[in-house]
Each structure stands twice: as structure tokens, then as C-alpha cells.
Amino acid sequence: MDFDPILLSRIQFAFTISFHIIFPTLTIGLSSWLAVVEGLWLITGKTVYQEIYKLWVKVFSVTFGMGVVSGIVMSYQFGTNWSRFSDSTSNVLGPLFAFEVLTAFFLEASFLGIMLFGWGRVTRRMHFISTIIVALGTLTSAFWIISANSWMHTPTGYEIQEGLIFHPLNWIDIIFNPSFPYRLMHMVTGAYLATAFFVGGIGSWYLLKKRHTPHARIMVGMAMMMAVFVTPIQVFLGDLHGLNTFKHQPAKVAAIEGTWETMKGAPLILFGYPDEKEETTKYVVQIPQLSSLILTHSFDGEVKGLKAWAKEDRPPVRPVFFAFRLMVGIGILMLLTGMIAVLLFFRKTLFKNRWFQRWCIILTPSGFIAVLAGWFVTEIGRQPYVVYGLMRTLQAASPVNGKQVFLSLLAFIIVYTFIFGAGIYYILKLIQKGPKPLLKETEIYGSHGVIPPVLGEE
Amino acid sequence: MLDFSPFLDLPLLASCIMALAVFLYVLLDGFDLGVGILFPFAPSKDCRDKMMNSIAPFWDGNETWLVLGGGLLFSAFPLAYAILLPAFYIPLILMLLGLIFRGVAFEFRFKEQGKMHILWDYSFHLGSVCATFFQGILLGAFVSGVTTQGRAFGGGSFDWLNGFSVLTGIALVFGYSLLGATWLLMKTDHKTQEWARKIAFRSLFYVVFFLGIVSLWVPFLNETIFTRWFSLPNFFYFLPIPLLTGLSFLGLYKSLLKKQEIQPFFIVLAIFSLGYLGLGISLWPWIVPYHISIWDAAAGAKSLSLLLMAVVILLPVILGYTAYAYYVFRGKSRASYED
User: Fold this and answer.
1) Fewer CB within 10 Å: C terminus or N terminus of chain A?
2) Cα–Cα distance between B233 and A51 in angstroms, integer?
3) Phi and psi at residue A205, to the nearest 5°
4) Can you tell me whether residue A384 is helix, strand or coil?
5) Based on the number of CB atoms within 10 Å of its own CB, is A202 exposed (0-12), middle (13-18) or buried (19 or more)?
6) CA atoms within 13 A on the CB side of B44
């Protein structure tokens, strides 16, 4: 059997990073939401908020733990499997990665301890501050890593010296490269929405089962506020991001659209089946001239087709084409959910309608699927380059033996499946148990350890 | 653009910071990996709960130093990163898998009330042993030297495996055990503490034994190391290191006999520092032993300048709030936290 180390390394990277990104998506969303919930508790003094906080902080900690361990793997894989990429780009990307560790990881890790175990050891105010710091940490982390990722899509502020080594010319140009603001906003908003639908789905499940109704109403209510107000913003941001991609990576857009011929007044293909051998998209359902309108804001603007690039310079078309439709499809469902929620709200049945609850339960994982699909679009769409237009993925791999990569990939698949399975199992168990009713304030203080309890020693 | 290279030796400074990050990792994750290694040998479940709680608020921050180590190697010494990581592919992946198993055990163990508890106990233990052993292997393989070919690794998949690296692997397991035991001495009481003291004594002897062999073996791995230590006048300059190490071991033994709770941990920290210093003297100035020096592997001056500026500003802040976190969770560990 022939083991191609580059193909296997690509599969391994795709597998480990896809697995990893699910957790940061949830921790970005949950930490901000937990900060809001804790704030509401401190302002209103209502125990229901505290009970929600204490349930979800446990889910958060499981998610965070899995994010950390799968993240450590990422930080070493650049070297183990992509050492030539590391050697070439580290002058530019290295500081960004280091900044992520220095400004975000330590902050999150240190204050997470206080967030999880600090009740009664610090004041309520300090606890609240810790939650906010963790939330800011997750956002800072997103800032740096997406900056580095965006630079690989739209490199600026560099010069290339002998042996394909990138050197920095202007840090501001590197950090705030052209696709970065769009990608960052699109991803953070995506994380917020994914979390909202996750929390909303679980709240709906409680409502359907008639359990923890006061908590569930808050969870569903807040989730639907996000669906109503943030989904349209996300659609708008996605459109901006798409236009930015059209400007800098037109080949990716051609793959997204499934258009092969360059033409004026290009139609928007809603569905179809791109055939890479015959260089055509079959069975198309299309709207005339819409693609040109969206991308160039003119009915007969020119949109480049895939044939404008040599075969070896095109990204794989099918995965990009379908992943994009999956992402957009989920976005449309979310938009619809928001509209229905508004309707039900005015009919005063938002928390009663059983069908709507079932619908929200189905959508529980939808945001994560959309986030993954979106990343598939942008990352596969960047191929065959690792640094767009400058360095090919083929030039980036390590000189390692294919069998070694095959075994490590196998190990990652087995271990991640097991760990991920266990993680989901424990998260579901926490949710199944639901929020724990808290005791009266004075009693809580006793067991919090302000007055250290005398433990019966062994 | 920012460039300090005309008046600062940037690679030298970067290597010091890198060494500091790795050193802090070894000390901090060392004690919590040590707790994991000792975990199943504790007398009761209650003891194990306390052991785990003594490190639960910290493990994540401790492991972040490993990410920083990797991040700094990538950004400050990209050539070394590009050579060393493929060279150590297998032990690195195995170490990471070990860290995964022990890391998730923190989350899963407390959520599990049933029999599966035991699964996560062992996931924590075996993960810690595996991560530590392969860290030791990495150290041994690094000291043994790496084959290079141009700007890339030029050796085979199993170059890292040799008698010396296996020895350092085993030695580190005992080293972290000693760190973990003395940490528990400080953070627990009663039965757990008494047990930790017994374990500390036992690991002390193993550590003396293995550190002795490793220290005697290193000079024979490479001629430059031998001449560095045994030529005159170097021999006398460096003599205090083994002497102080010996004295520290005696001090530790006495401290344990006197049933001191806090001092043993800090004496072990001193022993690790001396060992690390010895290693630094042996390997200087290689970052890919014995081919590429820190100056040859360093990133461009502009990248290093930006990096160093950030480190100088941020590292004190990080150390500050890390210290705060340790302060918040001061005192003896209890069997459970209020959730």
C-alpha cells in the first residue's frame, strides 16, 4: 500500500482542526453569554440566573477542556506535518501565534480556574470579572488566530527572500490583512449564533418536557433574541465576506458558484452537480443574472469561471460548492426561525407552541454544522495554495514518512472519537440533570467555604 | 519598523525567554503530571479526590506553558521548529495523546458518579505517565543529537529511540513523581499527606539514582560536552552545580525527616533548576544539537524584535495573574469544590 504523506497530513490536519473548532465555537459563545447571565444575576438578584449560570458553566468547562487538549495538538502539528510551511512563514505568522498564547491562552486558563472553582473564595464581583476576562480571552484568541489564518488567504505586508522565506515589512498590514476584518466578524457572529441555537434547542427540550420551565424560558427567550436580531446581521456580514473573497480569491468564488465559463450577466446557480472531469455543472437550477448582480452590483458584470485558471490552479470544486450551500441553507433556516419566533411572540405562544419547540430541538447542532461548512468552503477554496497564490500546499509538508502519518492519523481518529463521544455523553448528562435548585443565601455561604466547613477527616 | 538588532543580541534573548518558558512548564506541569503518576497508588478515593482538586484550578494554565514553548520555538527559531518536530514526530504525537487523556479526565471524572469513575482515574494516570515518559524521551533524544539535511530533518523515524532517551524517560517519571509528592505534602493533610511523605522518600532515592546515571552519561554523548565540563578551569567553575545538587538532596532528606510541609517542594524546585542549568551548560549554544546554533536558527530581526517587546510587556502580567490564581486557591485541598 502506498502512503502519501502529504495527502495523509492534509486529512489529519482537516480532521484535527475540524474537531477542534467545534469547541472554541461553543466557548466563544458560551463565555460571552455566561457573562451576560451572571451580570443579570448580580443586577436583578434572581436566583434563576445563578442556577442557569451554574448549569452552563459546567458545560462550558467540559467544552473548554476538550478545546484545550485538541488545541495543543494543533500548535505542534505545524511542525510535525507542515515543517516547510513553518520554516517559510514563521517570520510573519510566528509572532501572531505567540501573541495568541501571551494575550489570550494564559488569561483564559488562569481565570477559568476562578470561574469554575472560585465560588466563596473570591467576591461575587471578582467572580463576575473573571467571567468577563475569560470571555474577552476567547475573543482575543479568535482575533489572533483568524488574523494568521486570513493572512494565508490574503497575504500583505511581506517580502519574499531567497528559498521562499517570507519576511515582514509592515505588521499592521500583516495583522489587518484585507480579508481579516470580514472573516473575524463572520466567525465570531457565527459562534454566537451557533451557541444561541444550541442553548435555545436545549431550552426548548426542557419546555417540551415541562421541566425547569423558568430557566428554559430565559434560555429560549435569549436564544430567539439572537436569532431575530443577529441572524440578519450575519447574512449581511457573510455577503460582505463573499464580496471580499470575490476581490481577492475569485477562483474560490467560481468554485462556490459552480461556474466554469467566464461570462457577463452570470446566473446564480441554486443547485446543481459540478462535474470536474467534464468541466461543467449539471442539473442546474439557476436564477439569471443574479450572480453578477450580487458580486458586481450590476446585471451584466463579468464573473470569472473556473476555466479561467489552469487545472492545477483550481480548488476542488465539489466540496466547496456543496459546503457553501449547506452553510447558506442553515443560515436561511435560522432566519426563518427568527421570523417565526417574532410571530409566535406577538401571538403570545412563543413558549407554548409544541411544534416550534420540536423545530428548535432539531436545530440544536445546526450552528456548528454551518461553522464547519463555512470553514470547509474557505479552506478548501484556498487550495491548491497554503499561502494564497504564493506557496502551494505541496511545498509545505514535512519530510516525514507516510506510514508514520497514517498511524498518527489512525490514532487521532480513534482517540478523538472516544474522547468526543465521552464529552458529548457528559454534556448530555449535565443537560439531562438540568439546573440544580440553590439553597437559601445564608446556607450557600456556609458551604461556599467563607466559613470553612470542618470536614470529617478520613 | 521595529528593530532592536543593532544594539541587542536578539537570538540570545529569545533563547533565554524560550528556556524560561520551557523551564516553567517543566516545574508547573511537572508537579501536576507527578500527581497523575502517583494517582492510583493513593490510599483511598477520598485522597484521590483531594489530589485532583489540589491541581484542578491550575493544570490548564500549567499546560499553557507548553503551548508557549511550542509557539516561541515556531516564532523565534523556525528552523529548529521545522527540523525538530518532524524528527520527534512519534514521541511528540504520543506525548500529545497522553496529555489529551489526562486533560479530559479532569472534566469527566467529576461528572461521573458511577463505575466509569475508574476509567477516568486510569485515563488520568496512564495519560500522565505516557506524557511524562515521552517528554523524557524527547529530552534524551534532543541531547543525543539530531541528523539534519540542509534546512530539514534528515534522519529516520526512530532516531529518537536509544538507551539514553529511554533512561531519561524513566528518570523524568521519577522526577515528576518527586515534584508531585512534595506538592501534595504542601497541599494536603492527614492521611494523604502521610502517604505523600512516604512516596516522597521513595522517589527521592530513585531520583538520586537516575539523575546520577544521566549526569554521568551526558558528557560521554558528545566530545564538546565532555571538554566543556572536564577541562580546566571550567571544571572548577561548574563544580558548584553538582555540589549544590548533592547538598539539596541532603537538605530534602532532612526536611522530609523533620516532617516539614512546604520546604520540600521548594527544595525539589531547586534540584530541577540545577539540573536544568547543567543541561543548559552542556548544550549551549545548540538549538538543534549538534548542528545548528541559536543564531543560525533564529527568525528575522524584525520578527524577533516585535516578539521580544510583547514578551517583555506581557510576561510580568501573566506571572502576576498566575500568582494571583495560586493565591486564591492557597491552603489545603478539600475533597470537593462548591459548584
Assistant:
1) N
2) 68
3) -65, -45
4) coil
5) buried
6) 11
Residues of chain A found within 8 Å of residue B74, distances taken between Cβ atoms: 75, 78-79, 86, 90, 94, 97-98
Q: What's the average model confidence in pLDDT over A283-306?
A: 84
| pLDDT higher than 80, residue B148 | yes
Domain that holds residue B189: 10-328
B177 domain residue, yes or no: yes
Residues of A within 8 A of B335 (CB-CB) are 455
Q: At residue B299, what is the residue type?
A: A
Residue A355's CB is within 10 A of a number of other CB atoms, namely: 9
- ipTM of this complex prediction, to 2 decimal places: 0.88
Tell whether B222 is covered by a domain: yes
Omega prior to A155 cis, within 30 of 0: no
Residue B334 in contact with residue A454, Cβ under 8 Å? no
- Minimum CA–CA partner of B305 in chain A: A95
- CA-nearest residue to A457 within chain B is B190
Amino acid at A144: W
The pLDDT value given to residue A448: 39
Task: Tell me: pLDDT of A443 over 50.
Answer: no
Contact A205, A168 (CB under 8 A): no
Please check the confidence at residue A409 and state whether its pLDDT lies above 60: yes
Q: Identify the DSSP state of A274.
A: E
Question: What value does the mean pLDDT take over residues B272-301?
Answer: 89
The three cell numbers of residue B111 are: 461528572
Q: What is the least distance, in Å, from the CA of B335 to any CA of chain A?
A: 9
The domain tally of chain B equals 1
Nearest to A90 among B56, B75, B111 (CB): B75
Categorize the per-residue pLDDT at B339 as very low, low, confident or very high, splitting at 50, 70 and 90: low
The grid coordinates of residue A301 equal: 458584470
Residue matched to cell numbers 468564488: A253
Are the C-beta atoms of A359 and A337 separated by less than 8 Å?
Answer: yes
CATH number at residue B216: 1.20.1630
Q: Tell me what pLDDT residue A39 has.
A: 93
Query: Does A296 have pLDDT greater than 50?
Result: yes
Separation of alpha carbons B240 and B255, rounded Å: 21
- Quick one: closest CA in B to A420, which residue? B104
What's the confidence (pLDDT) of residue A401?
82
- The string of DSSP letters for A195-248 reads HHHHHHHHHHHHHHTT-SHHHHHHHHHHHHHHHHHHHHHHHHHHHHHHHHHHHH
In this predicted model, what pLDDT tens digit does every residue of B59-69 receive, in sequence order?
888 988 988 98
pTM comes to 0.89
At A53, the amino acid letter reads Y
Q: Note whether residue B97 is domain-resident.
A: yes
Q: Tell me how close the Cα of A364 comes to any Cα of chain B, in angstroms.
A: 22
Which residues, in sequence order, are CB contacts of A430 under 8 Å at separation 6+?
A55, A58, A59, A62, B111
* Nearest residue in chain A measured CA to CA from B307: A95
Enter the C-alpha cell of residue A274: 459540478
State phi, psi for B161 to the nearest 5 degrees: -90, 110
Are the Cβ atoms of B71 and A97 closer than 8 angstroms?
yes
B108 neighbourhood in chain A, CB within 8 Å = 62, 422-423, 426
Nine cell digits for residue A165: 522565506
- Cα(A157)–Cα(A169) distance, integer angstroms: 5
**What radius of gyration, in Å, describes the C-alpha atoms of chain A?**
24
Out of A80, A97, A448, whose CB is closest to B89? A80
Give CA–CA dist A7/A397, Å, rounded: 10
What confidence tier does A258 reach under pLDDT thresholds 50, 70, 90?
Answer: confident
Give the Cα separation of A216 and A206 in Å (integer): 6
Residue B1, in any domain of the structure: no
C-alpha–C-alpha distance, residues B171 and B168, integer Å: 5
Tell me the backbone φ, ψ of residue A269, rounded to 5 degrees: -85, 115
Residue whose cell numbers read 473556473:
A306
